[in-house]
Amino acid sequence: MMASLMAGAVRPGRSVKRSVSIWELLVWAFQREKISIEFDELSRLAGERPGVGMEYILMQRHNLGCSVDGGGRSEPHPDADLISSALAALPEAVGGRRMAVWIASLAQSGRWPEVDCQPEAKCEPATVRRCKHGVYAERSFWSGDGIMHRWPQSQLGKNDGYVCLVRYTGTARDVASQRRQWLQWWSALLELRTTFQIRGLSAFEVTDSMPPMAPWNSGGQ
User: Fold this and answer.
1) Which in 27, 68, 159, 215 has the greatest CB count within 10 A?
2) Residue-number span of the structural domain to which 156 is assigned
3) Distance CA 70, CA 92 (A)
């Protein structure tokens, strides 16, 4: 699912704040401002003290007025730096660093996590082969897998003993995994939305708008 991107060629100004959703804000920061997450900044600003959360890091950002070195390009917007810091300090309760990296990757591509709103169980060949006549399921001689024994060689003909290995997709386990990942991602966005609504940004006003919490309940959007 492709998320909508914010339009406009001019950087947000400081006089009038633009109302955006938390997802639009993340996409702007990673696509337009091209920020990255600096996890080492946590120890630098927090003085190597454990247990320092997102709120403390953002306050230090405001107090110091500092920004991450842009590496030879123009410095990112101050709000983009705050977004980077907030992601780097994302609490473990909503995924921590692993979730922060995932959110950054999704925002860079402008896509939401994959979730099948109308799952359908399928049985497909594990591997296929292609030739001039088309695509065919690949077969192999069955020699056993430790659970099912191979066929007795003396009872097999010239073309007997071959199998086509298959895999199942769209199973209940696959659906549950996708939905669990979606809800974790959604919870992390909610945490970030709350943070920026409380702390505030210089150029943006974060609205209550969020991606659907459970898109599978309405058949997907």
Assistant:
1) 27
2) 122-169
3) 27
